[in-house]
């Protein structure tokens, strides 16, 4: 996937890439620029390592929001086979921001659910920028109960700035829909694996975020609120989003250290959009491995482990340092 949309901190890298491409096009003629290209390539490799090995929390948020980052349906095409989308919550409507259906993973039938963003303005309006309405979460619950009925594992993919906060969504019970999902997912008698592939924002992420295993891509983020929202509340200034990103401890390393996720899937330098196939292959391997482990557990043990996993979150000790 090409990187036509660069972030501010990527400019030195993009400039070198542009120069290399220009020299390669000129090399098609009589002049040989092999030596110059080799020199620039060496500088490019050093620049990439320097920039991407020391990313700030805010820069990781920007990568998680990159418009060319793989979305849920991209991973569906790269990881699964025989995807059959199922629509509607049987109460109000079909929400295109949260999609799901049956698929096959390594020869086994699974139920997959996830937020889906758009690539252009028209698709983003249809997908509501990945911010689901209550009917989206009710559709997800309907499909999860269907999977439970037939003892089919559930795989969810989180990528949302948050649940849609509009008046219509609130009138139709947005908070209640998410709350019911939290309760019901905790009691599902079938394995559930959650993967945070991009943005993991607020209750919108939690609505499909309860699982026996929680996997997070390296440059994704997971947070109770967006950095901009946090900055607006704490400092009355959205411009301090970078400070908020640090305070929120929303990066994959922070989340792993806090015990909120179980493992991290590495990404290539620059983010998942640089090599979607490699990231998908690594994620597929982790999904298959985790599913094999979870399907060996009887339902009672599965539920007990899931309960203990989330019950232990947020436990801390206070003391006076001598």
Query: Briefly, what CATH class of the largest domain?
Result: Alpha Beta
> Which consecutive residue ranges, at least 5 long each, have pLDDT under 50?
none
Mean pLDDT: 91
Sketch the topology as an H/E string, one letter per element: HHHHEEEHHEHHEHEEHHHEHH
The separation of the N and C termini measures 54 Å
Structural class: alpha/beta
Number of helices: 14
CATH superfamily of the largest domain: 2-enoyl-CoA Hydratase, Chain A, domain 1
Q: How many E strands? A: 8
In the CATH classification, which architecture of the largest domain applies? Answer: Alpha-Beta Complex
What's the domain count? 2
- The third-level CATH topology of the largest domain is 2-enoyl-CoA Hydratase, Chain A, domain 1
Task: Write down the overall geometry.
Answer: globular
Query: Helix content range of the residues, please?
Result: 40-55%
Described by strand count, sense and barrel closure, the largest sheet is: 8 strands, mixed
What is the CA-based Rg, rounded?
Answer: 21 Å
Q: How much β-strand is present in the residues? A: 15-25%
What's the short story on this structure?
This protein is α/β, with parallel strands linked by helices and 322 residues long.
Report on the structure:
With 322 residues, this protein is of the alpha/beta class. The protein has two domains: 8-54; 61-311, 2-enoyl-CoA Hydratase, Chain A, domain 1 (Alpha-Beta Complex), CATH 3.90.226. The protein is 47% helix and 15% strand. It is built from 14 helices and eight strands. The chain has helices at 11-26, 34-52, 57-64, 72-79, 121-127, 134-149, 167-171, 174-186, 202-206, 227-234, 241-248, 252-257, 276-294, 299-311; strands spanning 81-85, 98-105, 108-115, 154-160, 192-201, 213-217, 221-223, 263-265. The chain is globular and about 70 Å long. The N and C termini lie far apart (54 Å).
């Amino acid at each position: 996937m090409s990187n036509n949309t660069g972030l501010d901190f990527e400019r030195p890298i993009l400039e070198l890439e542009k120069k290399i491409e220009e020299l390669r096009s000129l090399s098609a003629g009589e002049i040989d620029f092999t030596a110059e290209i080799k020199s620039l390539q060496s500088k490019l490799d050093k620049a990439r390592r320097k920039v991407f090995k020391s990313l700030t929390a805010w820069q990781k948020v920007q990568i998680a929001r990159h418009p060319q980052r793989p979305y849920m349906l991209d991973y569906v095409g790269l990881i699964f086979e025989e995807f059959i989308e199922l629509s509607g919550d049987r109460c109000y409507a079909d929400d295109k921001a949260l999609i799901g259906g049956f698929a096959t993973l390594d020869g086994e039938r699974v139920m997959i659910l996830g937020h889906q963003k758009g690539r252009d303005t028209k698709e983003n309006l249809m997908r509501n920028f990945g911010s689901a309405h209550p009917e989206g979460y009710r559709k997800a619950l309907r499909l999860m109960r269907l999977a439970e009925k037939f003892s089919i594992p559930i795989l969810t993919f989180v990528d949302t700035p948050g649940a849609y906060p509009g008046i219509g969504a609130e009138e139709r019970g947005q908070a209640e829909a998410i709350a019911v999902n939290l309760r019901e997912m905790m009691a599902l008698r079938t394995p559930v694996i959650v993967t945070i592939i991009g943005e993991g924002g607020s209750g919108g992420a939690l609505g499909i975020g309860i699982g026996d295993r929680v996997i997070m891509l390296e440059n994704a983020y997971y947070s109770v609120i967006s950095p901009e929202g946090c900055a607006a509340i704490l400092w009355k200034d959205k411009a301090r989003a970078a400070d908020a990103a640090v305070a929120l401890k929303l990066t994959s390393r922070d989340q792993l250290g806090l015990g909120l996720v179980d493992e991290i899937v590495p990404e290539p330098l620059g983010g998942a959009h640089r090599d979607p196939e490699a990231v998908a292959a690594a994620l597929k391997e982790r999904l298959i491995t985790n599913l094999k482990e979870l399907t060996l557990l009887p339902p009672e043990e599965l539920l007990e482990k899931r309960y203990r996993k989330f019950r232990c979150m947020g436990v801390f000790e206070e003391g006076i340092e001598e």
